[in-house]
Fold these 4 entries.
Entry 1:
Amino acid sequence: MTKYLYILMLCFTAITGFYFFLSWAQLPPGQRYIYPIDDVYIHLALARNFAELGVWSVNISGFDSASSSILYTLLLAGLIRLFGDWEYYPLLLNVVFGYLTVYSVYRYYKDFYGSTELKWAAALILFFPLLYVMVLIGMEHTIHMFLMVLAVYFIHRNVKSDFRCKDFLLLLTVTFFLSMVRFESMFFTVSLAFALFLRKNYLKGTLILVAGFIAIVVFGIISVQNGGFFFPNSVMVKGSYPAEDHIFMSMWQLFENGILLNVSFYKCLFFPLVIIAVYLFEKYRAARLKNLLNETLLIVVVLTSVLHALFAVLMYRYENYLMISLLLICIPIITHLHEKYRKTELNKSLLKILTLGSITAIVLISIYRFGYHHLPLTYMSKGINSQQVEMSRFLGKYYKGEKIVANDIGAISYFSGVQLLDIVGLGSTDIAEEIVRNKHLSAEENAFKNKKFIVEYAAKNKFKVAVIYPEWFPGGVPDEWIPVATWKIPEPYGPARQRIVFYALRSEEEASLRKNLMEFDRNPNVKQEFLNKVTK
């Protein structure tokens, strides 16, 4: 079966390498490689500040937990501490863990199944969960996917060995590192502990909870002691959780938004869950229901998926660790059901139609996701280079060390050396606290209070310039902020918006901002347009 490993490795290398060089080729001649998304540079800025200054922030002072991956930021900080600052550590780590993920998928099917499952893996494993895309964007998601593959492997092995000590210690280790790579792994920890409690393995379930939460609790205590949230800013700002005063209505809204009316749920999770449901029905409809409690692996993956859909973001890239784990357990089910239906005469049974329809949907979704990401992967780096990296060059030249308001903070924080106020709240705890405080208010009241807080905070702390997407400012950009110029890029890929606006926050800053923009030797791909004459 080694040939399937070679096929998997070759496909992974060819597709990842192709898009790496295709993306790089879109940049100006001689330009270094730029990551397709801006968030990588948030990790790099935070890791560098922690390695060099002992500061957990994208700024050179304070405590602002902009990263939702303790492990990834610590890995980057360790590399910077040992070998010096280098912007391509994320790419290096992702390539290494990409290959480890491919190898782990191969070992899972080699050790527990056979060549039929490996054929399916060769066809789908890169495209359904977008492994090659995760490698190229340079974030922590490749490590997350690798650890989830290991988690599926060791749960399977533990079930077969009845959780013998050596196997269980390996599962504990994977659980510990999963908890550090992304905070959504709490859903996995709770699901695995629950599945062990169903097996009446209470001690082992408790140990899983300890392994899965110890790093989170330690980090949370350190964060609170330094004036932050227990969880990172990104988790608090982006996460979904019920309001304390309307908990039942909020729970329904979570179900409605996370599952019932969530298109991403149907694209990413629904059809694998249908296949699992058909398999369980076929297997246990004539058996005692309590036997279902021993399906530990299925319980863990399904429950993790449901919890994530309810309480976290199920789009962009955050869903792919679920998709690879669902695919891992669905492929053996597909081969099993195919063999069973091939021998049955019930060619038009409802279960067979559901299974074949779901398999077809998974294949079509894989093709769709591959095609959909072709243009973004090709041009996102060019877009980030034209907007975010260019903004960082401008700010680094004219405003280094100064106080700047922004909303896409990655490249700015890593390259420019400014002191940032992030209106989204990821890199600014004070803003994040206000956003979380107002999260369950009406949209109008939420926008009004957030806007008021940002305007007063920026004025009180003497911020000079804002470089933002006006559409992102809650309640609209304040009238007292003076719009000076816009930058617009032609690429609709990479940055969240093609147009950014430079604002002078005080009238005395307007003339100098205009002068700096006129003097700056900007990328010819960026169209600059001035908006006002200098205020008298």
Note: The mean pLDDT is 93.
Entry 2:
Amino acid sequence: MKLRLGTRGTDLAKARTNQVAEGLRALGHDVEVVPVTTAEPDANHMDDGLSFRGQFAAELRQALRDGSVDAVVHSTKDIPIGEQRQPDLVIAAVPLRDDWRDALVSRNRLRLRALPRQARVGVTSLRRIAQIRRIRPDLTFVDVGGTMAERLARVQPGDLDAVVLSASALQRTGMIDQVAEFLDILPAPGQGAKSIECRAADRDVMEALAALEDLETRICVAAERDFLFRLGADYRMPVGALVSRRSILNLKAAATSVDGSRYIQLEIGMPTSLLHAKRAGERMAQAFLERGVMEFLSPEALADVRFSAQHDEETGTLDELGPDAPHILLPRQEGRLSSSFRERGISIDTAPLQIATILDGATNLMDDADWVLFPSAHTIWAVREFGWEIPKDKKIAAMGSTTRELLEELGLEVHLSPEGTASSKRLIDLFPEGSGRVVIPCADDLSTRLQDGLSAKGYDVQRMPVYHMVDLEEVAGWVLDGWENARYDAILLTSPSVARSALNLLPRNGTMVLAWDEDTAKVLREAGVDVAAVASTKDDSGVDQLAAAVRERRK
């Protein structure tokens, strides 16, 4: 029969729905996958709990009710916990569950216990943070959003050491080969499960969908979700649960305080029936309540925790400002510069075209310094890669707020750092007239601007090259796709080396080119590139200037 399957418009949601479509086609049905337009773009920082309140499920259900589709495919986690059965709709099938595990993707494919001390790990839930903290309390957790590809692209020197994602999401998007380790933590209730819903009156559709039913998956997911419901919790809270089969079905659940210091884990057996599944969930929740779980799960206990660190597994890009916002490609890491443009209503895709490599034979000069000046996050990464400790008895300067924040995460006091975007001039201006030795760990091609400016103020300046930037072997597919299909109004290049990489890796296609300084513009012009605008200062005024140039071009 002819079937129209409704799906959310994200890549991961469409991949999930295509799985279902292929299963139905194998049974002889003619299936069309229909993206359902959402009222708002997916949220990355879910302060308003869009998924938890059921907005995503509601939009798919509206498409069912208005007749534009015959069935919809939900991520089971998008269906509100504890909701009553929809009188006009029915979950016709819960297919065999996909991989429920959480997966670690890391630089050099290091396992969790092998990550360096205070490694930066990207996460999308309190559940992951809390359980991983019990294994590695020293790690630094970073809230990450964006598509799967964008999150994975952040695992590189100077940004993230690793990121934790769901194995099912990686599997569906063809990225499972990047996994360094499947983590020994409990998943969110229903993780990896799909629910197919249709109108209760459409008996032929129900019968067709029922062929995909996996009763054991339905039973397992029901027990896990009922436990969460009876506990009075939702997906934002640090709670995990999993039903698995070891001759009989076993429900295992855990709740962890966000700091990892308190932990309750229990396991019970359960018969294979939907009735007993819900009873098992209720019994488990009661056992947790009797053990005082609400002392660290109650709203009061979590009052100081920012739920904005919650994401679903398939959010859009970090800069969802709507289709009418100007869109810039920024080939560098996330940081203050990208945030500054977003604050001005400019959509930004950050996608580095270079990767840092350690310089052989680098020498540690920091012990002889009065000041240690860090120009970038890459510098901090390189120093850590060498295994060198940053001396805490030295004065420290950082060339921008992102670099300063990374140093502070390592427990270091930063004495000088201009607010906002990185700027050599503003950092030089902060230094008092004086003397003493300033050591600058840096890339081997760092300009002499810092050295010249501080020397003029009376300092003995020593460069300490520790890394070198090289072009990526291959540009990420989503970047090339956007570049070749006119996704971007402009590209902003922030240094001469980044400009050279863009010239090497991206075909020229008439996209507006912006430069962050005159040195970068010079490289571009020498290559025959028309530079539409150059920031006159590397600060908020420069951001305003470039944002205005992009808006003017769009008129």
Note: The first strand starts at residue 2 and ends at 7.
Entry 3:
Amino acid sequence: MRKLTRPTLFLLACLVYAGCSSTKSLKPGQILYTGAEININPDSSGKIDDEKQVKADLKSKTRPKPNNKLKLAIYNFAGEPKKAKGGLRNWIRKKGEAPVLLSEVKLKYNNDVLTSYLLSEGYLQAEVTGDTVVKAKKGKAIYTANTGERYKINSITFPPDTGLLTKIINNNKGKTLLKVGDYYDLDTYTNERIRIDNDLKENGFFYFSPDYLIMQVDSTIGKNLVNVSVKVKDIAPDAGLKPYTIKNINIYPNYSLRRDTVLRRLKPLEYKDFNIYDDRNTFKPRLFDRLVFFQKGEPYNRRDHNQSLNRMVNVGAFQDVRAEFLPVDSFQNNQLDLNIYLTPLKKNSLTFGVTGTSKSNNFVGSEVRVTQTTRNLFRGAEQLDISVAGGFETQTRGTSLGKNSVSLTTEAKLTFPRFIVPFYKPNSTTAFIPKTIASLSYQMLNRGGEYTLNAFKGEFGYNFKENQYKEHNFNPISVSYIATGFPSTDIRDSLYKVNPLLRTTLENQFIIGSNYNFTYTNQMETNRRNNTFFFGSIETGGNLWGAFVPKDAEGKRSIFNVPLSQFIRLEADLRDYYKVTRNVTWANRLNLGYGYAYGNSTSLPFVRQFFAGGSNDIRAFPARTLGPGTYKVSEDAIFADQGGDIKLMLNSELRFKLVSVLYGALFVDAGNVWLRKEDVGVPGTANTGRPGSEFKLKNTLNELAVGTGAGLRVDATIFVVRLDVAFPVRKPYLPEGQRWVFDNIAFGDKAWRRENLIFNIGIGYPF
């Protein structure tokens, strides 16, 4: 530790010295620019609303920006290079930032920019003046803004109803963004013009533009009020002032520029309202019923336009989509021809990928996957994906430390771009393509040579995006069969003898049921200050089949001599991301899970249980070793995974940028898992159960584990690698009154560090 500390302190001292000498690299006569200062109405006692925010907005618009202190310190630390190119000094200087000089400040330009901004915010009498102040070798710009009173809207007038265009404007004026009593705001006027343009586009006015509208503002009425008049410009072209209808819908499903002339000469296939030009019959004509929303003779509208384009893009069959609207007879009438040019993707493609894997049980490794994709399998834009993957994992922390895991996975997935429902034909009119998905998969997992899991799974279901925020997945048929193999019966018996819990954990399982999950997210809206993610799921097993499968002599329901799992499983995951500043985000998560097992078992199947601890969970405890309840698994257990029927977890993490792609984090995690019924073991055997594992609502808070820590993340956008170090501050398995362990924290104690510090390596963020 001392070997690392001394060079680090020396480097910091050098940077501090260089930072204190921020003007050391200046030439004679040069002055370092330190930034802008904004004063609002300094000679007036009147304050404006949101003065602090207005100052910040004005300051952000001044140019140039002053130096980043750290980057300037690095630049100065490098000193003057001896070579024009190359060398250590040049390399260090490139990591820094050259001094920003006061001579680069253009006062008149900034005065005009700041005045223009204030005018756009309703300060119609605003005036900004700038000056500079120099002290030693440093200087700053001081801008004084005399804003005057902020103007409000007194009245709003829309154009008189003289035709269809003005009638539409007046019919929708109830949706106006302009409100009497609101402040004058230029952005609102711009958005109002866009709103009116959208209303007109929905009613056939294809060639209309927001630029054809003018907002006349009369500020001479006094009392700091304005009258706003919305008008159509007299110079607006005739083509923009009349509605258009669709005449012909021409579709070119196999278009290429090379075959353009040949395709246009073809006799089209007439299918409903479509003229299809394709001599190769690439797609079934009925596919376009679900992709193109326009009909012959109907007025053009933007909604159909956008939904058609979105569907043709999202169907996943085309590499290029283009819609062209052409006036018939060069604007002499009010009709448009719609030409749709579609260039299909290649029929077959082969992809190869290598990915890093990081799991909640602290297994880290890599996987190689090869996928063969066949598109347009039945000429209806279907897609068949067949993949083979092989992976290798090792546990970086936990009871299986040093033991490797090898996996082999094969999967076949067939996707239909429509709902396939027996005896019913649902109709979807959203911009997103509904999908019917049938899949089969097999996975072999060999865990350290001790046992091998063979998992077979088949599913049939639907994927549907309600809009860009909401997504639904429903699998009415989901069948899983898990079979466990051992190298020999001796190894199996020795494992069971050391850990009797393995007998129920590794038994063969048959799960036949249904599942549904719902996802909501607005994380794609990066300009929002607060983003939310929610995932909810419900899964049932054996409910329908249990009614038809008779009980055996032991009172259990089995299929092919394998017990049928019967359960209901619920889970909810709510996440919130709040941007404190541009480079600081406060992330929080609440994860709840509940499972109810009946029939053949008293707890969920092991593969459907909830777990606590690990790199994406409660990071201060080894993967899957926490709980259930106040139970503590033996540290020398061969198989330490402890599942539960009920889960409660809360995470809070402050994420902040350090430099470039390096980010830091401070976090607190809390939670646990419980069994719905106490595990009492098997009397008269080595299986003594797990005392304290039962869930009791009154004891929930008292049985929560709490951990805290810090982490580093390399966030290169396309991938994230992180290292978190955490330690427990509350251990639920200790006697009551002793569970908070703040007093025991001793970073200087080697034994304490070995027992309590948990290092987690992960791919991606924990949540």
Note: The chain has a mean pLDDT of 89.
Entry 4:
Amino acid sequence: MSGWFGVGVDAKRLIWLASAAWCWSAGAHAQDLQNRPVAPPPPEASPAPAPANEQIVDFSADSLEYLNATDTVVASGDVRMFREGNRLRADKVTWNRQTGEVRAEGDVAVTNPQGDVAYGDSVQLTDTLRDGVVDNLLVVLQSGGRLAAERGTRQGNLYTLEDAAYTACSVVDSNGCPKQPSWKITAVRVVYDTQKQRVFYKGARLHLFGLSLLPLPLLSNPTGDQGGTGVLVPDIQFSRVNGLELTVPYYIKLAPNRDLTITPHIYSDVLPAIEAQYRALTSKGAYQVSGMVTESRKLPAELNPGANASDRDIRGYLDASGRFQLDPKWDISGSLRVTTDRTFLRRYDISRDDRLRSTIRAERIDTDSYFSLTGWATQTLRINDPQGQQPIALPELDYRHRFNDPLLGGRVELQLNTLAIGRTDGQDTQRAFASFKWDLRRLTPWGQEVTFTAFARGDVYHSDENLLSPTLIYRGNPGWESRAIGALAVDVRWPLIGPVGSNGTQRITPRVQLVATPPIRNLDIPNEDARAIELEDSNLFALNRFPGYDRFEDGARITYGVDYALTLPGISVDANIGQSYRLSDRPALFPDGVGLTDKLSDIVGRTTVRFRDFVSLTHRYRLDKDNLAVRRNEIDATIGSRQTYLLLGYLRLNRDIDTSIEDLRDREEIRVGGRVQIGRFWSAFGSAIVDLTDRQEDPFSTADGYQPIRHRLGIAYEDDCLEMGLTWRRDYQDTGDARRGNTFLLRLSFKNLGR
């Protein structure tokens, strides 16, 4: 039987349980967290037109009875009620019109518009139709968590759950059979305050894998996903330098868009430290400011410092960053990273960066133009690297504009750039240039792709204190210098594509490039940004093979090579190889050992092999043109699946470059990492970095040919609601008071648990 219930004023309030469902959804869970045999009420099959009286509820039932003697309405037999997205299902609903009591009985299930489902054996409401009692309550949240209680009551703004429990874990295994959740929180009583929007637990205790572990006497959590003030999950770590470390973050919600986290660090062997992070989200962007401060002794930043530390000093760091989108085209971003000394970040396990860069930038980007105004400064943390030699750029301006050539066709790009670099105890350089670049791409009737390029640039430089630059070839002449740059290039590719077998294809693409540039006064110009030069596959066909603006390759050259691609079911191979030949007799600008010194360059190439999603191998190399000796050998490999995999990396630079050029020193290292799935939820992981450089490769190296840098080993557990792990890490290098030794980290994270 279905229809419009004429006593809808009070029937509407039966939907009180739906509102209670989401109010209790952030609370706790009853002791019976398992699924109930009753299905949640389905959506209304064919909603009736909205009634004129908003207090009327659409319902259906097998039978409807009115008891005149008691003035009671009884709906029974698969009773379903619908109103404004709220749905109720029960075996029986009784409304006493004299007492105002409304009771739903028998496999009661209520779904609210948010998708949370509340189950109960019976629901009883008082005549206020706000306060009431639910027996054997279970609420399954749309977000995946669930709470349950032996009994739930509401009085005014307070909801009270007796003998309750909460979990965010699944309660069935992969076969659909019931199982204990990985963790749950039980409590003698749970109180939810609707005004404070917070749930408070009394007598709470954490259960892990069915074992009762930690009491949580002051546990509370906010409702919803907005967060709230309170203590976060602590971290525990042990290291040789600082001893046992306990961090207890305290989160303060200042506003819906602002928060502050204060984290005391308590150590067994050194004085405590305090860390703080402030975050804010505005209508234009977001920013954060964090830092840490303590008082401790420190040693000089040397590989083998003396035994005597300095007196205690105030030590710390500051880290701030932000980005603001002013409009669809303009944005401002910046970062600030500074520390009091060179070993603080490593000693307190914050970062292993050897340089800290602070920046400020304003950018404008649209379809055909780009503008940026940038300033940056660097703080070095490297051993024997003078801070006075570190550059401070203020400002760096870059503007680019692209448009179509209305005369010959093609694409034109104009660029304006200025840079001012200062040092407190080093060379100062200012630079400005304007450039023009024209590209025209055409396809011949035979399928060749031909690209014509014309390039012109004019530079003006000023520098002083040039003698303070430690590397002679980077200094340039002091005072004002200028130069003009011009280049013409033709690049021809000829893709040849054909089948391999019945399901494969291959592509062979020969490529030839001719570049001509008149003599350029390069060595008269300071070199600030084009130092790390080396011939490799990525810059073989570049118009200028220097990485920056301060050096430009002159003379005439021809570059040739071939690209190869093979595609088979489950297998792909991409490779290239090439070489260049200088046509002019002008002395080489490049240092010995970078592969470009002689007229005939070294041979460079890259090969990438992929087998399904299981194997990925990339090999980059440079071969000596005279004896095919390997001057650069770089291998990166990934083998395995998402659950079990091995990462391998190897690099050897055997260039024999002058040791006075610090940016181009030789080195050799191997990197390995991996993870092994040893069960459905358990895995073991590890990684290591080993320095294989010896004195023959780099006379300044302290390694002996096999010097571990660091390694880590650990075991982890992760399921749908819990992450935990134990990690052992060992450092093998001493730098000041950042000493070698072991560090142990215990990590525990509960997913979907409000804080």
Note: The longest strand covers residues 428-443.
